[in-house]
Specification:
The structure is a homodimer of 339-residue chains. With 339 residues, the first copy, chain A, is of the alpha/beta class. Chain A is 41% helix and 17% strand. Chain A is built from 12 helices and 12 strands. The longest helix of chain A has 17 residues. At the A-B interface, helix 4, helix 5, strand 2, helix 6 and helix 11 of A face helix 4, helix 5, strand 2, helix 6 and helix 11 of B. Chain A binds a DNA duplex (30 and 30 nucleotides) through helix 2 and helix 4.
Chain lengths: 339, 339
DNA sequence: TGAAAATTTGTGAATGCTCACATATAATTC
DNA sequence: GAATTATATGTGAGCATTCACAAATTTTCA
């Protein structure tokens, strides 16, 4: 026997006021005397009343919800902080983990659910620009996490080009001449940017681009890629690995091959996830502060939501090279001839 | 100029049918001729109509939403798979990351948002039983992830007691007599269960419980705890560390202290996160399959939602000991006298 | 072929709330 | 103390849908 939930009217009757007064109370509006406010509040408690959110949303066309749309490719590290900030700012936090096929549909459906703001985390380089996304989202304020530097979309990014440059240049500075790469997926924006920056940095230093294998940002992907690298017969003494996870896997492959890091091969990676500092050897890597990234993303959408004349722009964070034990000067390395 | 969204009526007019027929079409109901169905569909496309979810939810009192309520203590590994399955089954996925204070409020608000099912992930041992939670959730089907074995709440759990027993017994089997522990927070159900099981296993083997330090499941927590352990002057050759993250940190502390794993100290931990296999030395650890756990949790709530006479029960998964290189037989270890 | 059954379409009412406005009451001013 | 302003409360309408039923049309088959 499901007893019906009490409504505004039930409360009104109980407190002997009009339903409108009750509405004022639950929305914390002015023009209610302290006395009646208390009476209403008591009635609410007595009846166990809770406003019907669906009705409220229908009326106000606001759901106090921020939705994160991301592709199903591993939960992103910044989600953690996003959830926290979103709730702190009084919004609900919805995650849609989707595949490519659902992208347009998900964005469109957001409007019909009265989502107030959208944080889009693509896993591939999006072809369309701002206008295209704007059309899809049907006027909901949105930002993108990760985008090319200088993109016209409202976005929050870490400068990937700079990050990969830092990593590659570090290897060059240590005297390495043959620098290989395990890249992320090139269809992924970050993977693409890091890869190109690795090449560009090498070129600018007057070095040949070494061998490069495209992988998938996973531990196992890194392991496989490094095996290929080692078995390819290519010469290299340093490797730029496009993220820490792949570096873990790659390291295992190097050890299995009978070589050592950094004695035989230096590796630099990207992200600085918490494990990297405690890895043996400690990973030299390019740090991105994911908490910060998440927080900035949320703050930006909320800005857009609450302050409609916020200018569309890009917020660019600079990554930082963290030097640990996985890289060494070439002169200190034994020459790599075990093959 | 915000042009109003088209409604059922607009579509009805465009397609020259009644609004009810349009409703039938968008809900894929029977009793609509193929011809009119197509006509309506065309009208929907022409006008760019999308049903107003808020109105639908208000009417049906269903939101097709499953909410995960978890405490703000790091994103849990099973979230990934949960998101996937939830969406695969046609529900929306909402995450509420909360602190203790918000618990009751969040559960209560779920009803007013017409959440269809709740997955509760406590970070502390919940005092109340099934009835208490049931009262809070106001009749929404819910399950809990993590609970004491034998609890009356509908729950999906890994048998923590068995897991910690496996780990501890492994150390005992290797000949270790002085077995210390870095535990998780004891207010946490898993932390509590693992700790007690470590003690019980030792007792049953006729051994004294070694020194134990309570920590917080983080890398740094593990690091600090191991330092305390080492500086305490206590004798131990094996340590049960309540999760892999703490083991990473603990390993760093051991190395800094000039000792080696497993030569001087054997460590077993818990979880088997992907990094553990690639750690050096590979971590001997108790594996929990978080994807499986996530999937089972979702399937259970959906069962409860869609099939109201599903019996309340507990689904218990058994963890598995994965032996790698962080443990060794006592006889193979050099005696630990470096102190 | 015609009555019964099945299918297709339509109408009225309800859902629980907020907005815009109207009215009543109290406080302020000259 | 009447006129003005501010504050407190109430009323009507509407938001976009679905449910339950009624009406119209088509199909079935004795």
């Amino acid at each position: 026997m499901k007893t019906k939930r009490p409504t505004l009217y039930d409360v009104a009757r109980e407190a002997n006021v009009s339903y409108q007064t009750v509405s004022r109370v639950i929305n914390d509006k002015a023009h209610v005397s302290e006395e009646t406010r208390e009476r209403v509040q008591k009635a609410i408690k007595t009846l166990g009343f809770r406003p019907n959110r669906a009705a409220q949303i229908m009326q106000t066309e606001r759901s106090d919800t921020i939705e994160v749309v991301l592709f199903y490719s591993g939960f992103n590290l910044f989600l953690y902080e996003m959830a926290r900030i979103v709730q702190q700012l009084g919004y609900h936090f919805v995650i849609s983990a989707i595949t490519d096929a659902d992208f347009a549909r998900t964005l469109e459906s957001a409007a019909s659910r009265f989502v107030d703001g959208l944080i889009i985390v693509p896993d591939t380089r999006l072809r369309g620009g701002y206008e295209e996304l704007k059309a899809l989202t049907g006027g909901i304020p949105f930002i993108q996490v990760g985008a090319p530097l200088g993109a016209s979309v409202p976005s929050v990014i870490y400068d990937q080009v700079q990050g990969a440059r830092l990593a590659t240049q570090h290897l060059i500075d240590l005297g390495h001449q043959n620098i290989a790469e395990i890249s992320g997926p090139l269809r992924n924006q970050d993977g693409y940017d890091r890869h190109n920056s690795w090449m560009a940095t090498l070129r600018e230093a007057g070095l040949e681009a070494g061998i490069s294998i495209e992988s998938n940002f996973t531990i196992d992907g890194g392991y496989q890629a490094m095996r290929h690298l080692l078995e390819s017969g290519a010469e290299f003494t340093g490797v730029f690995i496009a993220n820490d996870s792949m570096a873990f896997g790659a390291h295992t492959a190097i050890r299995e091959y009978g070589l050592r890091v950094p004695d035989d091969i230096s590796i630099v990676s990207f992200d600085d996830i918490p494990e990297s500092a405690h890895f043996v050897p400690g990973l030299t890597t390019v740090r991105q502060d994911f908490n910060l990234l998440g927080r900035m993303a949320v703050e930006y959408v909320v800005d857009l939501i609450e302050n409609p004349n916020t200018a569309i722009h890009q917020r660019v964070l600079q990554p930082k090279l963290i030097i640990r034990e996985s890289t060494a000067a070439l002169t200190d390395q034994r020459v790599n001839l075990t093959r």
